Amino acid sequence: MRHLLSPLDLSIDELDNLLDLATDIEHNPDKYSEACKGKKLATLFYEPSTRTRLSFESAMLNLGGNVLGFSSADSSSAAKGESVSDTIRIISCYADICAMRHPKEGAPLVAASKSSIPVINAGDGGHQHPTQTLTDLMTIRSLKGRLSNLTIGLCGDLKFGRTVHSLINALVRYEGIKFVLISPNELRLPDYIRVDVLEKNNIEYIEAEHLEDALENLDILYMTRVQKERFFNEEEYIRLKDSYILNAEKMALAPKDMLVLHPLPRVNEISVEVDNDERAVYFKQVQYGVYVRMALILTLLNITIE
Ligand code: CP
User: Fold this and answer.
1) What is the pTM assigned to this prediction?
2) Whose CA is closest to 167, among 126, 206, 216, 134?
3) Distance from C-alpha of 161 to C-alpha of 14, rounded to nearest angstrom
4) Which of 102, 144, 145, 183 qualifies as a cystine partner to 187, CB 3.0-4.6 A?
């Protein structure tokens, strides 16, 4: 039995196979429409979500399976004090696979250690968000045609942004990857990623405070929101929340083939006027999220379709 707690739980070959499967699903959805008949996915969401929870549910329904779960800690027995370890033992009796989002880093790992069904980390605190990474990789591979030899600008809250941490972990395994880390000083990438992942793997990176200065050399610009829910001090959040706003004027400084990704939700960091720019692919990215989650469910349940 396998879990997905970090993007590194998949080897490069497994990742490539999963993205190939997701692409086949994109082009041949009918082939997979009964692949999970009789199977159940549980979504255990202790934190708010729109995309991750609903795309998992959509993925399982597209595969002919069923879904159950809860969308907030308050509506589960966590509100009465039940532990994650006990909850997953219960859910293992009800479902074949589960996706868990939790505000505490490592909660899905704890769940996996007690689970008799595959556990998928759907975001744990400021730590990792591996299925967003699968979504991001499929978006880049589908629209750029490659996952190597790319210069990627990561902009916004690099301290708390778990999607950024997971994406870096995944991309450093490809050839010719360079990063431009664009953030206010207070929201710089933590050392456990900058030193232990980038520097340890000899990945070229620079840090910048101004988005305008970074744009002209980018293949991908990955925007992120400032993660209000991770701040202890509201004044600090208010001071930093609008550090970067991508607008048409800034897009004019960027290469004609640069893609703009965002894990969403967006707050102010991308002006709506950018939505009509053909380089803005964050809504296409959402659709890819369904295909990769379908591929992931099939992979973890060991279901193959000829
Ligand atoms: N990208 C993402 O995780 O969105 P949700 O918080 O809506 O799931």
Assistant:
1) 0.95
2) 134
3) 25
4) 183
